[in-house]
Amino acid sequence: MGRWEPDARGRLARAALDLYAERGYEQTTVADIAQRAGVTERTFFRHFTDKREVLFDPSLTLQETMVAAIAAAPADRTPVETVVGALQTAVAMLEERRDWSRRRAAVIAANPSLLERELLKLAALATAAGAALRARGVREPRASLAAETGVTAFKVGFEHWVGEPPAQDEAVQEPESPARTLADHIGEALDEIRALTATPRPLG
Amino acid sequence: MGRWEPDARGRLARAALDLYAERGYEQTTVADIAQRAGVTERTFFRHFTDKREVLFDPSLTLQETMVAAIAAAPADRTPVETVVGALQTAVAMLEERRDWSRRRAAVIAANPSLLERELLKLAALATAAGAALRARGVREPRASLAAETGVTAFKVGFEHWVGEPPAQDEAVQEPESPARTLADHIGEALDEIRALTATPRPLG
DNA sequence: CACGTGATGTCAGAGGCTGTCATCACTACA
DNA sequence: TGTAGTGATGACAGCCTCTGACATCACGTG
Question: Which bases on strand C have an atom closer than 7 Å to a protein beta carbon?
Answer without folding.
Answer: 6-12, 15-20, 25-27
